[in-house]
Amino acid sequence: MRIGLLRCDDIFEDLRPEYSGYHQLFTNLFAATGDESVEFTDLPVYQGTFPSAPDEYDAWLITGSARGVYEDEPWIRSLLDLVRDLDVARAPTLGVCFGHQAIAQALGGRVERVDTWGIGNRAARITRRESWMTPGHDEVGIFYSHRDQVLDLPSGGRVVATADHCPVAALAVGDHMLGIQAHPEFDPHYADVLYRGRYTGTRLQEVLDDALSTLDAPLHRVDVATWMLRFIRGL
């Protein structure tokens, strides 16, 4: 399966020597599922590189970003236009964090920055059991890193998972678009380095300490990646 990686940022600088970038992170994640058929092509949309057609690849994955989907940037406007084109074409599409929010924003939902810091390995409870959720779990632990949240669903959207800090932890639109607020591509070491490097300052110390206390909590990132692959394959 050929997946167009709609890359919306670079990863944290301190992690680049070990993890390279989003292309390597997602390649490693999906390889861990045992599926060797997935091949990513990097499309840095934040630098203005966009696909020529919704069917150029078998499926799409929109990455995270430090930017907000509500920001008035040319590339963000173009990305939201692309999401709408992918929706019309019913192209299999995954969104992670910023990508999850982009799906909502593009299709009539509402995304805003909230007071709650969403960091750490947090449990997302499944609210709708769907066929692609195999292996089955009532809740899944995944790492988060965000303050923006989907507050209103997009047209035709449904909540499939919720978390204590984030009511719309995952959403789906039809059988072709799946958004996940968390970062299944983060492993514990990645999250540790990212949190210590990004969440600094006295006022965030309690938030950081709490997030670091979750590094060894049960993690279901590979199972969630399996769900993502099953979803875009229509299983």
Describe the structure.
44% of the residues are buried. The chain contains seven helices and nine strands, in the order βααββαβαβββββααα. Strand 8 and strand 9 (177-180) form a beta hairpin. It has a nine-stranded mixed beta sheet, with helices on both faces. The longest helix has 16 residues, at 74-89. With 235 residues, the protein is of the alpha/beta class. The protein has one domain: Class I glutamine amidotransferase (GATase) domain (Rossmann fold, 3-Layer(aba) Sandwich), CATH 3.40.50.
Number of DSSP strands?
9
Helix-strand pattern: EHHEEHEHEEEEEHHH
Which strand order does the major sheet show? Answer: 2-1-3-4-9-8-7-5-6
Main β sheet profile: 9 strands, mixed
Write the layout of secondary structure elements.
Blueprint lengths: L1 E6 L8 H4 L2 H10 L7 E6 L14 E4 L11 H16 L3 E4 L1 H9 L3 E17 L12 E14 L4 E7 L2 E8 L3 E4 L7 H11 L6 H8 L8 H12 L3
Helix pairs in contact: 3-4
Give a brief rundown of this model.
This protein has helices at residues 16-19, 22-31, 74-89, 98-106, 188-198, 205-212, 221-232; strands at 2-7, 39-44, 59-62, 93-96, 110-126, 139-152, 157-163, 166-173, 177-180. With 235 residues, it is of the alpha/beta class.
List keywords for this structure.
single chain; alpha/beta; Rossmann fold; 9 strands
